[in-house]
Amino acid sequence: MTVIGRSWNRLTLPGKIVFTVVPLLLLLTVAAIALILLFGQLVVDILVANLPIVRFVVAATAVLLMTIPTAFLVGYMELKGIALMNLRIGPDRVGPFGSLISVVHGLKMLMKEDFTPTGADGLVFTWAPVVVYLASVMTLLVIPFGPGLYGADFNIGLLYFFAVGGLSVVGLLMAGWSSYNKYSLLGGLRAAAQVVSYEIPLTLSVVGLLLLAGTMSLNTLVEHQAGWFTDWYIFQQPLGALIFFIAATAEANRTPFDLTEADSEIVAGYATEYSGMRFGFFYFAEFVNVFIISALMVVLFLGGWNAPFPWPWPIELSLDPASFNIGLLLIIGLAPVVLTLLFGAPFYLLRSSIKWWHALIAGFVLANLFIITLLGIWAYIGLDWVAGLIWFLLKTYVFVFILVWMRGTLPRVRVDQLMDFAWKWLLPASLVNLFVTAGAIVVVKELGR
Amino acid sequence: MSLVPGLGLVKGMALTLRRIFEPKVTVRYPEVRLDVPHKFRGRLQLLYDEWGTLKCETCFQCAQACPIECIDMGGIDTRGRYHVHWGAPETYGERREESAMRRSGRPVPDPAYRPFEPIAMGEVDRILEEYDHDPARMLHILEATQDAYGYLPVAALKRISHATGAWYAMIYGTASYYAHLRFEPATASEQAAAVADHRPAEGEYLSALGAALEGGGRPGAPARA
């Protein structure tokens, strides 16, 4: 056997996958670049002709990549926010204010042993985290992040969301079942029971909204809420919004309904036997879920990417970069240098004790901030989708913060209270909401006639 | 249950929100070090040497230095003879197991402990009565006791401690400081030196006896083959 063969045999399964997929991807990239260089026009024509497919591939890639910073940010917010609420400092070692702790966590996960217990069903055990993770990520495809900034605009977007989001139950059950551990199985069953129970009020709570809007496309739903913030559906469906928020919290296994993986009480529920990156995917999916339920809450009830009020004085930016001709190059080349000197000069002149290169660094940072702010303002005014994205992310992260805040505050409910609440309170309340909404629509129609 | 349902929820959320802006209690230890009060002694612990023997020499320095007199200790003195004790008078006669039991309800065996021999208490009681149980006249009490018994028996020291209220370790310290006070019956050689002036014949006899017995003729001294 050759050296290569021996090395190949020593690799674990993920290693084998990585060592085949990465070179393959590199090869494909090189081939694609070569193709574009050789037959540029032809390739562009083919891509344009198959725009839906291209769009889907790009959207799927973007959504997959997007989960990484999202999960990092949500994880950091969780650690730091709860720490601050507990009068602790929280992460403060890696990066400014500890903001890179999620990166370090991720590296730690990658370096841990990827362990499979004896007797576990290897295939199912490996695929369970993938199913949980993908069920989360695939729901991101239909969420409109901004005007025109969505993976796919289905006319059944909301239905797709609930259908695919519900798949995570399968992953949880797979994880519990394949671990060859009765506690994992119990944890999986508990998680499944909880998620399935809360799925019903969650889905019913938005039916009233659907009656009002007459569409299931999330993009159209957001467009319906354009204008002043009083047009947001939360003012027409307050009960629906409340039920949706509570049920979504339970759906994402967040406090006060996080007893499937109550970290202070039980080991880890269905994820007991998981370690390394396979556990990391569960972890990841949880953070992405937090983002997703916040995003859906914003999309359905809080106007999505709409600003809370229309800008009263429309600004027209008639700035055409092409009009500068060769001057544009000069500006791009000179502006950073000039601005750095300009912002650094006051430091150097006013404080005689400061070293010149300290002043230069300060000037550089300030100049960058200035340029970024300018560019941001220009993008916000000039580009619709940037403004939409900013508003959407702002609202979403407010909700992420509320979820973190709840986790720092609320105690955990008992399992019987959990079920009682879903079946005795949320379900009737969502039905009442549905009937009242339907009645109100009929009455308004009759009056209007 | 409050009047308005969900009010407690709101209160709790408001509390945690306020907490975010309050000063934090965490100390970034290696960079920031708190000022430690100068009387702070850290965690007191008895150490063992590499042979597994307790390093404590029963010097009572820890008990003496303890700023709030919370250390209550007993042990064997350095020559392995007497059970000495530092602490409140009502705990003097207590064996270590009893003391530990009293304090923690958990027995702690003390294999090194040897009970002291009993004596007739009449003499020491009379001496104490004579000196009015006054701890300030401790030297006189001890000298009188030694005159009565020939040496200072541990039982007598404990009785003196009980009666005067002086701590046993203080009395032990006083008694071990003065050369003419002793804790064992005098050896034959020592007796010989004491009587040599006025009873030369007895002195000669006693010194010969001491030499014959070796080890100074102390009762209970190991006899050499």
Key attributes of the depicted protein:
heterodimer; A: 449 residues; mainly alpha; 17 helices; globular; B: 225 residues; two-stranded antiparallel sheet; 9 helices; 2 strands; 41% helix; elongated
How would you concisely characterize the structure shown here?
With 449 residues, chain A is mainly α. Chain A is built from 17 helices and no strands.
Task: Describe the protein's topology.
The complex is a heterodimer of chains A (about 450) and B (about 220).
Chain A: H1 3-10, H2 13-38, H3 40-49, H4 51-85, H5 101-111, H6 122-139, H7 157-165, H8 168-178, H9 182-205, H10 207-213, H11 218-224, H12 238-251, H13 276-301, H14 326-350, H15 356-382, H16 384-409, H17 415-448
Helix pairs in contact in A: 2-3, 4-13, 4-16, 5-13, 6-7, 6-8, 6-13, 8-9, 9-12, 9-17, 10-17, 12-13, 12-17, 13-16, 14-15, 15-16
Chain B: H1 7-21, H2 61-65, E1 73-76, E2 83-86, H3 96-104, H4 122-130, H5 138-149, H6 154-164, H7 168-177, H8 188-195, H9 200-213
Antiparallel strand pairs in B: 1-2
Helix pairs in contact in B: 4-5, 8-9
